[in-house]
Amino acid sequence: MNSFINYLDQFNVLSPNHSKIYDEYTYDEGEKSYSFKIDTKIENYLIEIFNSNAHSVILTGNAGDGKTRLCRSIYNYFSETELSTWPNSGIIEVPFKHGRIRIVKDLSELKDEVIFQELSKLQLSIQSNHSDKLYYLIAANEGKLTKFLSQNENLKLLKEEVSVRFKDYKNNNQSLSILNLLDVTSSIYVEKVLNEWNQEENWSPCNSCAKNNTCIIYLNHQRTSTEHVKNRLVEQYRTLDYLGSHITMREMLIHISYLLTGGLNCTDIKNADYEDLKNQIEKPYYQNFYGHNIEHEAFSEMRALKLFRELDPGNYSISNIDDFILNGDICGIEQLESLHNEIFNEDLDLYLGYFKKRLDMYRDHNKDSNDKLIEEWINKLRRKFFFEFPNDDIFNRNSLIPFQFLKEFGDMFDNPMKRIQSRKDLVNGLNRAFSKRLVASSSQLYATTENLMVHSIVSNNQVIINEEESRADIDHLPSKFILLVNHKIDLPIDLHVFEYLMRLNAGTTHNILREDVEILLDTFKNEIIKNSETNDYTLNILRLDRDKGLYIQDEIFID
């Protein structure tokens, strides 16, 4: 038995070993003990605050974002002894060179009278510039915190201080900082966890196991240790960043552990009969990643699976990729045949050679046969191709996910020239979104109502695309852009908005993203109109150019 698999089992939401709180990510089993620590920028930033620029800090975020772990880390850093268990009160103090740090591990767990008492003390400390030498570190749910402050008039000053910091983290100062862990970029930690969990020393017992050739867990470890496969798993998390979706640390650990184990352990593998083995083979990492073949109860508790379903590459048919999957080994191109044999081989996830035989039978039979190979296998094989095909120069692998302009979006980061090149396409997409018409490509942005009245015309050089700023305090990668009109009216552009506008620019009629972006675009357009100046002598409209079949801007003079 590999006791490291038992460690991973604590993240399995259906296992009796499952723990809902793992702020130290440790596991003890007799003489075996596992512990790993994810280095985070915010932990170092908190230490720096209390060492060099002492003031009170409130940590906010979702359950599972690591607030409790950070509170424990700060206590352990400044204390001579490590914290073994939290006191029943959920509050503990630790002395340090500037006074005392009062740590509240979860404001939501406290009674209302205790919350009022602690927040009143915090308010007094802020008012007196911490003359009492008492500095708070409070972990709190944003909704609970703001609601409580709104309901207590005596906390009015603290409410105002908290409110301005939630609006913009740049309002943090030397009296109070609010660090919102929802702003942490999820993808930063994925590679760290995969590297840590896939260390060979964790899997050394598997090397001598008689079942390792029929162990799907061991196969998943081997595959996800491969550099290009690991990078593509991280890439999927990065795409969620682009979509503005935040995965908590807990959700990520649950997801990656399921990716590796499929909810199985060594006992399941060793005791498997023929039917059990058939079920286990259906749990390779590329199926686990999107939650295929998972119990419904587990799916409802694993939020990451719901988010990744939007990116599932198994559902989209791209002809040249499907043709490679089914015929790559007989295509007559030596390189492709070699790659096909390398990927679609006789490994466990392809039923130890059974798939190859099925594929030969499918190709040998005539079109009237009842072979269901395609409907049974093609979705799974597309996912396998997406992660394992090693060369991105031969096929457009990203065409298998439903965002056609993902690469263009990613290329704009750290690349002002790419942003300038995309500006014309985005402006054209906005013109078509505002008017609901096929507007001719233009170097101007038209704030147009659906009755084709143009209320404002903005030249291209007044449209600027800025990259979201990096952060010094938390692990945050820029993941969206801000489109500025006249340096004051802004439109946040995440991947949903970018994809929608680029599709409109390309002249497609896809409207699958309309619900995600339409309200945002209408608000942006109305702000432009509101800030525009009217001209009493001209009327700007969009009219149909019958020769081009497109709408163009025209001007009517009024006597």
Name the features.
4-stranded antiparallel β-sheet; alpha+beta; 5-stranded mixed β-sheet; 559 residues; flat; 14% strand
Shape verdict: flat
Residue stretches low in confidence (pLDDT < 50, at least 5 long) are none
Structural class call reads alpha+beta
| N- to C-terminal distance | 90 Å
What helical percentage do the residues reach? 40-55%
Radius of gyration: 28 Å
How many beta-strand segments? Answer: 14
Per DSSP, what share of the residues sits in E-state strands of 2 or more residues?
5-15%
Largest beta sheet, briefly? 5 strands, mixed
How many helices?
24
Strand order of the largest sheet: 4-5-6-3-7
Mean pLDDT: 91
Secondary-structure blueprint:
Elements: H1 3-9, E1 26-29, E2 32-35, H2 41-52, E3 56-60, H3 67-78, E4 91-96, E5 99-104, H4 112-127, E6 134-140, H5 142-150, H6 156-167, E7 176-180, H7 187-197, H8 200-207, H9 216-225, H10 227-242, H11 249-261, H12 266-270, H13 274-281, H14 285-288, H15 296-301, H16 303-308, H17 319-327, H18 334-343, H19 354-364, H20 373-388, H21 406-411, H22 416-435, E8 444-448, E9 453-459, E10 463-467, E11 481-485, E12 489-493, H23 495-505, H24 514-530, E13 538-545, E14 550-557
